[in-house]
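Translate sequence into structure tokens.
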Amino acid sequence: MSCIYGPHQFGTEDQGWVAHFLIRALERRPITVYGDGKQVRDVLYVEDLVDAFLRAEQDVEALAGQAFNIGGGTHNTISLRELLALIAQIDGRGPAVEYGPWRQGDQRYYVSDCAAYAAASGWRPRVAPRDGVRALAAWLANSRRRAAAAA
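Result follows.
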């Protein structure tokens, strides 16, 4: 599975980086970008992942014993800089960004090839990054409001 994101995710820098960026922006804390921010990843909204799992369950006999990549694929790519710009659109102001040195082993480009699973099951991601990030941002903001009201 590739970069999965969506509601109920409270991401860290290394796991759940889309949520991590949004959380830092909502908290008005700086986001650290290692390297130049042009790194590209494919992202997959959690509901699309659940759909992929449900398809696998429906076709378990035909898919059994095979290995597949599940991710956003080429239609759901986003660079770190593009995500920062999207956060600025959603939030109305750009997040504070600090740049650090490249981390050893960080890839400039990682995009899952989901063609085999699409061919075998007919599954394709449906939620575009723009829509999924907006939904996650709304969920995070609502969960923070509820937590503040309960305190």
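Note: The chain has a mean pLDDT of 94.
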